[in-house]
Amino acid sequence: MAAGGVGGYFGARLQQAGHDVTFFARGRHLEALRSSGLTVESSAGNASLKVRALKDPGEAGVADVVLFAVKLWDTEAAAEQIRPIVGPDTVVIPFQNGVESIDRLRKILPEKSVMGGSAYIATRIKAPGVIEHTGQMSRIQFGPVLASQKQSAESFLDVCRKANIQAEIPADIVKANWEKFVFLVGISSATAVARTTVGVVRADPDLRWLLEQAMHETWRLARKRGVALADDFVATRMQNVDGLHGDMKASLLHDLESGGRLEAPWLCGAVARMSAEAGLDAPVNRGVFAALKPFVNGSPVNAR
Question: To 5 degrees, how large is the angle CA 236–CA 251–CA 52?
Answer without folding.
Answer: 120
